[in-house]
Amino acid sequence: MLFKRILLPIDINDPSSWQKTLPMCVSMLNRNPEAKLWIISVVPNFGLNMVESYFPAGWMKEITAKTSNELKSIVAKHVPNEITPELIVERGVVYQVLLEYATKLEIDLIIMAAGNSGNKEYLLGPNAARVVRHADISVLIQR
Q: For the whole model, what pTM was predicted?
């Protein structure tokens, strides 16, 4: 089965979230030139506006810009020029944002790292587990 619309979540603070999955996406896109890739990084929210009020003014714009620049850097270093993924930086609860964008963009495959690499007791990190559990589409988990 050839997938045409692929979503790849990346945590810019965790290279293990993309070191294996990004080459996998590139390989899939090389085999299917009609396929399109979206790379998304979600800046987690803190759940309470009260907590966020302690941060300096403009902190969210700064973090969003830093995240966007880091995504561009990762893509420039690791994705061939003939592949032009769309980059998304969003804020929210990670698994919820991923599922919302999967629906909104009509994604047919989410590729993500298993997460939780430090704890061998669990096969999946919490976000990967929730995406797998709630997604209506195929999810490929890279361990």
A: 0.89
